Amino acid sequence: MALEKEWLQLLTEEVEEAFQTAGYDREYGRVVPSNRPDLCEYQCNGAMAAAKKYRKAPIAIAQEVAAVIEGRKDSCFGNAIAQAPGFLNLTVREEKLSECLREMAEDERCGAAKSKTPKKIVLDYGGPNVAKPLHVGHLRSAVIGESIKRILRYCGEEVIGDIHLGDWGLQMGLVITEVRRRMPDLPYFDEAFEGTWPEEAPFTVSELEEIYPFASARSKEDPEYYREAMEYTHRLQNREKGLFALWQKIVEVSTKDMRRNYERLHVSFELWNGESTVQDRIAPMVQEMKDKGLAVMSDGALIVDVAEESDARTIPPCMILKSDGAALYTTTDLATIVDREEKIAPDEIIYVTDKRQELHFTQVFRCARKCGLLPESTGLTHIGFGTVNGRNGLALKTREGGVMRLETLIDDIDAAMLEKIRTNPEIPEDEAVQTARQVALAALKYGDLSNQASKDYIFDLDKFISFEGDTGPYILYTIVRMQSILRKYEDGKKTGDEGRILPAKSAEEKRLMLMVASFPEAVRQARSELSPTRICAYIYALANDCNSFYHTTKILSEEDETQKAGWIALIRLANRILGTGIELLGFTAPERM
Question: Which pairing describes strands 388-389 and 348-354: parallel, antiparallel, or unpaired?
Fold first, then answer.
């Protein structure tokens, strides 16, 4: 069954009705969780705003509304107190709260509503270049993007994830040039070759990792080498069959390694498109921009002016083609918008990239709008994230000072967690390895997602793998503890009664119940703000309340079977919500730790 109304919605509607009954507009009755939990559980500050319209003291308005609430026999509130200068402090009835939680327990989504008008959304959250292994700089786009995709889908949206590979342009020409010099006898370079191309690639991803930076550095020092790379780039873009077949091998080897690493992160993409996908769209798109008089020449380059009168800072023109006629990232991003509009027709496109690309996306979005590449109704959103830094505050590097491979980072946290898991002698080695991977992934993802996306953060391995504090392992430990209680209860259960959540008997129990009831609001906020951090904050608070309740309540030794079953029903619901929360963040819990 679906929950008819969320808990906070019920509370707000009652206070709205109270404002209306007292002679004021309903709009002032919005209820929010209290920022002073020592005084009340919820609050409404509407009397402060109403005072301006009705030219009346806010405390007088709050007192009138409180009197209406106090006079209702079926009120959700145990008391409503007006406090100067005009706050309305609210405490809820335990019976009403438990009734709401029982309805949540019967709902397969625990009360979280789905969108009534689902959107079709393209989520662009990859962006790795082929011929290079994934490095630590790719962590945040993958982790944040995957969580946003899961949150959106949970809220009922149709989401298509696109990795958007960097698989075209001069970098491919550089790699081909160096492969040609090292392995000149490969059939890909024989224009007369008519046979079948080799099944095996002539290089590994590790060899490609070395080839590209070598070729890039040499091209900057050797004009002839650079000229050769430009020639190979041009020939590849003309689909010369041998070079195109070699390029396919470069992409194949690179993406195979990417898939393996993304799978370790529980990250997946529906589309494995790249810049190569839209190359045929560039020329007609550029011509249309010219025909409309929107793209003009400036110092030899083709540009579109995207500045607006309201700009507080200078927004440079969007460059479409360089003076040598070459396309840029802006060009391929614009062509990709054209491609997505024709093939998918999304309601919104969301990009998850480094925040240093903010200006780039401002230019691309404005250019796309100005040139009519998509309907005005189609949303364009850029979520910019900060960098992952070492303890010295600088970008995370290897001990040798190079860029750390993502695989190395995952291996390091897996190894550190395995060392911790092995301290439990009851867990067999094969289970310990699997458990360590699960907990390490939680440590890595939660460590990232619990930080606001736009902020840089310190990758602190010791903190991330800790079982205490605001960490992924702490969340999983709480889930495992709750699972253990539920198993023990089932093993010793005397009746077949599943139990029903009862009114709270302690402050700790009521705090847990209030936190459980706020799950739909947490999901809604995360969806609205496209912020997995909201889910992290919520499940951390819920885990704290679960543990507080556990420590102050003798659940399994309770002699009153009805009461015990009620507590178990509450724990079962809380644990379901924790499980949903970590699923939205992109990791799972083991059976034991």
Answer: unpaired
Residues of the chain above pLDDT 90, percent = 91
- Could you read off the pLDDT of 145-161 as tens digits, one per residue? 999 999 999 999 999 99
Q: Where are the domains of the chain?
A: 7-92, 170-262
> What is the three-state SS of 393-423?
CCECECCCCCECEHHHHHHHHHHHHHHHHCC
User: Pairing mode, if any, of strands 42-44 and 32-33?
Assistant: antiparallel
pLDDT in tens, 570-585: 999 999 999 999 999 9
Read off the amino acid at residue 66. Answer: A
ω into 202 cis (within 30 of 0): no
Tokens of 274: 């790249």
CATH number of this structure's domain 7-92:
3.30.1360.70
SS3 167: coil
CA-nearest of 216, 236, 243, 259 to 128 is 259
Model pTM? 0.94
Per-residue pLDDT reduced to its tens digit, 348-382 = 999 999 999 999 999 999 999 999 999 999 999 99
CA 36/CA 43 separation, integer angstroms: 9
Q: Which residues contact 31 (CB under 8 A, 6 or more apart)?
A: 8, 11, 12, 15, 42, 43, 44, 90
Helices of type H across 222-240: 223-237
Note whether 103 and 519 are within 8 A (CB): no
